[in-house]
Design brief:
By secondary structure, the chain is mainly α. The chain has one domain. It is about 70% helix and about 0% strand. Helix 2 packs across helix 3 and helix 2 packs across helix 4. The longest helix has 21 residues.
């Protein structure tokens, strides 16, 4: 992968993930850390750890949340392989 491809990927990832405060990043990282136990368990664990950022998703929001957090998980893996910190 060349520098232009990496920069294009990083720009698109920023568009998808959006601007987040440090508290939101910490919450998202907590969700990602618990994804292996299922989405509902991951959200519950993050809610316990970061109650100020707690989410109470409605039934129609779970699919979008799941896609978002799996994207963030995969993105973190790509950054790690590229040796880039968030």
């Amino acid at each position: 992968m060349n520098a232009n491809q990496i920069n294009a990927y990083l720009e698109r990832a920023r568009e998808i993930i959006g601007d987040r405060s440090q508290a939101e990043i910490d919450y998202d990282n907590a969700v990602v850390a618990h994804l292996s136990s299922g989405m509902d368990s991951a959200i519950a664990a993050a809610n316990r750890k970061y109650p100020a950022e707690a989410m109470r998703p409605g039934a129609d929001q779970w699919a979008d949340l799941e896609a978002r957090y799996y994207y963030i998980r995969d993105h973190k893996g790509i950054l790690k392989r590229l040796g880039i910190s968030e």
